[in-house]
Amino acid sequence: AFFSPQVLLLACAEDLECVPGFQQKVFYIEKPFEFKEDQLVLNLKFDDCRGNNKLNFEVSNPDFTVELDGNLVALKNVSEAGRALFVHARSEHAEDMAEIFILEANEKRGALKEILKLEGNLGIPRQKRAILATPILIPENQRPPFPRLVGKVIRSEGTEGVKFRLSGKGVDQDPKGIFRINEMSGDVSVTRTLDREAIANYELEVEVVDLNGKTIDGPVRLDISVIDQNDNRPMFKEGPYIGHVMEGSATGTTVMRMAAFDADDASTDNALLRYNILRQTPTKPSPNMFYIDPEKGDIVTVVSPALLDREVLRSIPKIQQVILCWHLANYDERSTEGSGAFLFLSGNSNDFLCVFCQFQATVKEGVTGVIVNLTVGDRDDPATGAWRAVYSIINGNPGQSFEIHTNPQTNEGMLSVVKPLDYEISAFHTLLIKVENEDPLIPDIAYGPSSTATVQITVEDVNEGPVFHPNPMAVTKQENIPVGSVVLTLNATDPDTLQHQTIRYSVYKDPAGWLEINPTNGTVGTTAVLDRESPFVHNNIYTALFLAIDSGNPPATGTGTLHITLEDVNDNVPSLYPTLAKVCDDAKDLRVVVLGASDKDLHPNTDPFKFELSKQSGPEKLWRINRLNNTHAQVILLQNLKKANYNIPISVTDSGKPPLTNTTELRLQVCTCKKSKMDCSATDALHISLTLILLSLLSLFCKSF
């Protein structure tokens, strides 16, 4: 009663076999403000299923590269990388192409991602393009040397025995010779300085030809865009501008609007303009009669309505304002002046001195803000330059810890602390402050001692929290070190050196509950085994927070951060997948299933894995296992089997020192297959293991004798 051998075949074998190429071919990333030099963009996984010998990557943008481990990084800081990157990978046995699309933050991509996800699940192949020519971005006004490499065209089928050819406006059409391509490598270069205002975009064509000039691939469109630079001066369209304002108009009355034009790219800050009043002639009755909206260019009145008196001020026929317009992105020599003439307005003579005296202030250490308002007396006409005060600190401020500004409503001087003061360094400060008017004094009047004041500032001591040194703290330890091991000793000091306080330590945040700290000396120890594979560990680093508390009243607290980098040890057995396979009882292909192994540990405690079948008993061996690569093996039948369930014990061993082994049973269902339909219902009731089959065979063999 021997069963006849059958050929085994997995229904899902195609999904489990190694498919050469990129594991993921399309990526979508959000455009950052800038790609940082050597910073990881994403990781590309390429496998030719035969060891990746002589693997080489090419990127369509020369400012990026792919390292041997598949990490895509920028070679320098890149602010403009275009809309897409193409990566071509080639080894001795396979080649493939990956596409990285760069999306703005507000772009909708959910629907497209779902479509691509569905295509991947159905196994729909993506169309392969022979020539990849991504758009190239070039800043205008680049300086020599030229030619300068700006991009790269890639041919997925290699460049041996072929040449690249570039054509179009800027190559072989006027203006000729601006761009050229390396016939062998596909590198695209620019040969001279570009001007966006002359030509903003170039539409070229690239093709691949054989050595006789016959076209093999293409042509493919290559777009080159010129990035705008701030190289155009804003211009006023008209001038001078004439405005009129009624006497007695309220403060804030709009008089007129100035408008300037800029030839730079309107979608960038290079064409975003701002306005300011540069000077006024005459400067009486006030040097600041008007205000201009820096964005809109609207000019409005800012003086009191009482100063807009036509009958009193008829001696001044007009007031001329010189307006300055500049780029928001670059306030430099590329600015433009425009003139506007406004009807009359009168002035006031500055013939009275402003007078003030001594002041005192108290401030707590570590606090910033206004600490005292300095009052000043001036009998000139309020709301004029002859009355408005200008304060300045002329002594006692070597560390620039103080600033003073004029309150426009009250004319008071607002003295502020802008850098926190330290009681332990200095408990007292004395400032000498001078006050003047916006308008110069009339002849025969000069500023005297009454136009200066002394400010005595007392700093109050505040209980400051202890400070950790350094912060954050970093240490490296192996995972699985014995419980009770010392990690390190924290060091915190109290800034209040004059108070002679003690410091106690405590744990603030310990997500995994692995640590403890000596409250007196700050020694950190372990209360549990450190596990690098724990979900509380990120990028091999475990982070905990500690507190240092002084003995003040009330006590003050400082927080310190500890980063523990955990080194991997071989403490995880490898796992095997899949554990279930189904085959047809009449299958002819004896290759049953491709098995994979994974390990939570890091290299070298993972692959290459060793796959073995447990010892097979009986007169015949039913299957064997063949290693495919470092992580996969294939189970092959040596003879056909009857319809039943079989449990195949398979052991997998990692490369750690010492190595760890895990034995897993692969459940194999032999099913009836008719008209492409698989029926495994009967096998579920059989539950025949390899051991039971061998026992049955042995029993039948004995009875025959």
From TrEMBL:
<feature type="domain" description="Cadherin">
    <location>
        <begin position="237"/>
        <end position="356"/>
    </location>
</feature>
<feature type="domain" description="Cadherin">
    <location>
        <begin position="469"/>
        <end position="576"/>
    </location>
</feature>
<comment type="subunit">
    <text>By contrast to classical cadherins, homodimerization in trans is not mediated by cadherin EC1 domain strand-swapping, but instead through a homophilic adhesive interface which joins two elongated EC1-EC2 domains through a region near their Ca2+-binding sites to form a tetrahedral, X-like shape.</text>
</comment>
<keyword id="KW-0165">Cleavage on pair of basic residues</keyword>
<dbReference type="GO" id="GO:0016339">
    <property type="term" value="P:calcium-dependent cell-cell adhesion via plasma membrane cell adhesion molecules"/>
</dbReference>
<feature type="domain" description="Cadherin">
    <location>
        <begin position="162"/>
        <end position="236"/>
    </location>
</feature>
<keyword id="KW-0449">Lipoprotein</keyword>
<keyword id="KW-0963">Cytoplasm</keyword>
<dbReference type="GO" id="GO:0007043">
    <property type="term" value="P:cell-cell junction assembly"/>
</dbReference>
<dbReference type="InterPro" id="IPR015919">
    <property type="entry name" value="Cadherin-like_sf"/>
</dbReference>
<feature type="domain" description="Cadherin">
    <location>
        <begin position="371"/>
        <end position="468"/>
    </location>
</feature>
<keyword id="KW-0106">Calcium</keyword>
<dbReference type="InterPro" id="IPR002126">
    <property type="entry name" value="Cadherin-like_dom"/>
</dbReference>
<dbReference type="GO" id="GO:0005737">
    <property type="term" value="C:cytoplasm"/>
</dbReference>
<dbReference type="GO" id="GO:0007156">
    <property type="term" value="P:homophilic cell adhesion via plasma membrane adhesion molecules"/>
</dbReference>
<keyword id="KW-0479">Metal-binding</keyword>
<keyword id="KW-0732">Signal</keyword>
<feature type="domain" description="Cadherin">
    <location>
        <begin position="575"/>
        <end position="686"/>
    </location>
</feature>
<keyword id="KW-0325">Glycoprotein</keyword>
<dbReference type="Pfam" id="PF00028">
    <property type="entry name" value="Cadherin"/>
</dbReference>
<dbReference type="GO" id="GO:0044331">
    <property type="term" value="P:cell-cell adhesion mediated by cadherin"/>
</dbReference>
<dbReference type="GO" id="GO:0009986">
    <property type="term" value="C:cell surface"/>
</dbReference>
<dbReference type="GO" id="GO:0034332">
    <property type="term" value="P:adherens junction organization"/>
</dbReference>
<protein>
    <recommendedName>
        <fullName>Cadherin-13</fullName>
    </recommendedName>
</protein>
<keyword id="KW-0336">GPI-anchor</keyword>
<dbReference type="GO" id="GO:0098552">
    <property type="term" value="C:side of membrane"/>
</dbReference>
<keyword id="KW-0130">Cell adhesion</keyword>
<dbReference type="GO" id="GO:0000902">
    <property type="term" value="P:cell morphogenesis"/>
</dbReference>
<dbReference type="InterPro" id="IPR020894">
    <property type="entry name" value="Cadherin_CS"/>
</dbReference>
<dbReference type="InterPro" id="IPR039808">
    <property type="entry name" value="Cadherin"/>
</dbReference>
<dbReference type="GO" id="GO:0005912">
    <property type="term" value="C:adherens junction"/>
</dbReference>
<dbReference type="GO" id="GO:0045296">
    <property type="term" value="F:cadherin binding"/>
</dbReference>
<dbReference type="Pfam" id="PF08758">
    <property type="entry name" value="Cadherin_pro"/>
</dbReference>
<dbReference type="GO" id="GO:0005509">
    <property type="term" value="F:calcium ion binding"/>
</dbReference>
<dbReference type="InterPro" id="IPR014868">
    <property type="entry name" value="Cadherin_pro_dom"/>
</dbReference>
<dbReference type="GO" id="GO:0016477">
    <property type="term" value="P:cell migration"/>
</dbReference>
<dbReference type="GO" id="GO:0016342">
    <property type="term" value="C:catenin complex"/>
</dbReference>
<keyword id="KW-0677">Repeat</keyword>
<keyword id="KW-0472">Membrane</keyword>
<comment type="function">
    <text>Cadherins are calcium-dependent cell adhesion proteins. They preferentially interact with themselves in a homophilic manner in connecting cells; cadherins may thus contribute to the sorting of heterogeneous cell types. May act as a negative regulator of neural cell growth.</text>
</comment>
<dbReference type="GO" id="GO:0008013">
    <property type="term" value="F:beta-catenin binding"/>
</dbReference>
<keyword id="KW-1003">Cell membrane</keyword>
